[in-house]
Specification:
Elements lengths: L4 E7 L23 H16 L7 E12 L8 E12 L2 E10 L2 E14 H16 L1
Antiparallel strand pairs: 1-3, 2-5, 3-4, 4-5
């Protein structure tokens, strides 16, 4: 599996813009491709690479992201997210990730994903939510 690579193309839509993440009173959110949208796109391409490794009932979850968002991308432009599996450390998988648009490199970084039991992680999340309300 190390060395495996994948890519996803995405046309930037209104819902992907930084300005869409702003709440009243926030400032500094331009109408360009948002970093949270970039993270989600890079997570998607990495998760696709892990699909063959999943047993029934398993899923992969993000465990870490080190990302440098280097350049803005405008509404309507196409972003290509790329991932390459670098290494496996038990159930942790480490990827080199990058994104490009027509003008060049937009982002580079590293993403880690873990393979987990889907039901167990959802139970754990609900249990954490219950503890915070007590």
């Amino acid at each position: 599996m190390p060395g495996d690579a994948a890519q996803i193309d995405l046309v930037v839509q209104q819902r992907h813009l930084a300005s869409q993440f702003a709440e009243p009173g926030d400032g500094g959110f331009a109408a360009v491709f948002a970093t949270p949208s970039m993270v989600a796109l890079l997570e998607r391409v990495c998760s696709r690479l892990l699909l063959p490794a999943l047993a029934p009932g398993q899923t992969s979850v993000g465990a870490g992201m080190n990302l440098r968002h280097k350049a803005p991308t405008a509404l309507g432009e196409t972003i290509t997210a790329q991932a390459r599996l670098v290494r496996c450390e038990g159930t942790l998988f480490v990827f080199d990730v990058s994104a490009r648009d027509a003008a060049g490199v937009v982002a580079t970084g590293e993403h880690q994903r873990a393979i987990v039991d889907a039901a167990s992680i959802e139970i754990s999340a609900r249990a954490r939510a219950t503890r915070t309300k007590e």
